[in-house]
Structures are given as structure tokens and as C-alpha cells.
Amino acid sequence: MDATARGEAPGTLYVIEHDIGGGSPSPAAPALDGHRMTPDTVLALLGTLCAGTGGEPPRRVLVVGCEPASVDEGIGLSPPVSDAVPEAVRLIEELLHGEPGESAPRATADGIST
User: Fold this and answer.
1) How far is Cα 14 from Cα 63, in angstroms, rounded to an integer?
2) What is the DSSP string of 28-78?
3) Distance between CA atoms of 58 and 45, rounded to whole angstroms?
4) If we measure between CA atoms, which residue out of 1, 5, 15, 3 comes closest to residue 111?
5) Based on CB atoms within 10 Å of each CB, which residue in 9, 39, 99, 111 is the most buried?
6) Mind listing the pLDDT tens digit for each residue in 4-47?
7) Average pLDDT, the chain
8) CA-based nearest residue to 37, from 47, 23, 26
């Protein structure tokens, strides 16, 4: 789970499907600098990392995101985000145990609809 600011109420959960094979690491950010790697950069490196280890890239990548209450630097979660954690865990478990090819739940203003 990661913070995903999309303009909804804090604590809203999103399921985002990454387009595998689309894009490459940003040329502005060094590929191996862990402090500057965006989620897009990490996901774009999946093929390279798998090739380097002899593994196969995943067929599908889903990211569970949560609307933050604030993106200011600090420690801890805001109350709405903290309250969303158990639902995010349930959602991830559903996604892991779902049937292959099943479509991901879609985000709504009130949270996730299945």
C-alpha cells in the first residue's frame, strides 16, 4: 500500500493496474538511487530485475493506494489513513485469492466497490 493522491477523501482506497511493458525509468532520476525512485521507475525496472535474476516478470501488477490526509513530512499515519489499513489488508487478501483474470475492484469516492 502506498499514498496515492487523487483528490478523494482521505482514507479512500484505490486499486491501480500498472501497464506492464509501458515506459522506462525516468532519465532525470538515477536508476539505482533509492531516494529518487518513484513507483513508476521501480515498476519500469521489473523486466530488468527479472532478467538479471533469471526470473519471469509478473503477468499483472496491481498497486493498492490510499488517499493521504497530508503529504507533509512527519511520522505516523493520519486517523483516516490509519482507519483504512484494515480495509486495505482485506482488499489485498481478496486480490491475492481472486481468480486469475478477475478484474480488480474499482475505487469510488466512498472507498472500494467490489
Assistant:
1) 8
2) TS-TT-TTT--HHHHHHTHHHHHHHHTPPPPS-EEEEEE--S--SS-SS--
3) 12
4) 15
5) 111
6) 888 899 999 999 888 765 555 445 444 566 666 777 777 778 77
7) 77
8) 26
